[in-house]
Request: fold
Amino acid sequence: SKNNSLTEIKLSDLKKALLGEKKDITVYLPQKNSGVYEFLKNEILGGKEFSSSVRVIESEFNVKEQILKNKNAIGLIGLNILKDTSGVTLLKIGYARNPLEPEIFYQPHQAYMINSSYPLTRTIYALSNEIGLGLASGFVTYMTSYPGQEIVKNSNLGPAAIPVKLTSGQK
Reply:
């Protein structure tokens, strides 16, 4: 929240917070089996369980409400869920792609998600077992068209087929 002075966090420190090794931060996550929960558990923690100090909330929509109430809290949700950023700070996440390089901090922005710079990015796939042309193939065709990709972009997801621009001051 804006009450928390934290504006950025190293990916390694976030991992420590999720494992309960960083006691000065309370982490709020959406429910078990959500995409965010499973991504963090499997991709960031390598399958390890979250610390009992991590607060698991019933939905992504309730995470913001909890961090606004708790000064030293951070919440992890999908960027597409966070329509109203008032009262919260979107944390930059820092990591080094190469151990010999310094850490670079990236904000959660579509451009950094698309080029894989932002480390908390997961890919969404549309799979269909439909044979021939039908409803599913029409949906996939629409979603990959310019109007479909505009919907993806306007939902704060990373479109695959249209450009996303960074404005000055975004890093």
User: Anything to note?
Assistant: Helices lie at 11-18, 35-44, 60-69, 110-114, 135-144, 146-154. Residues 8-94 form a domain with the D-Maltodextrin-Binding Protein; domain 2 fold (CATH 3.40.190.10). Residues 20 and 52 are 7 Å apart (CA to CA).
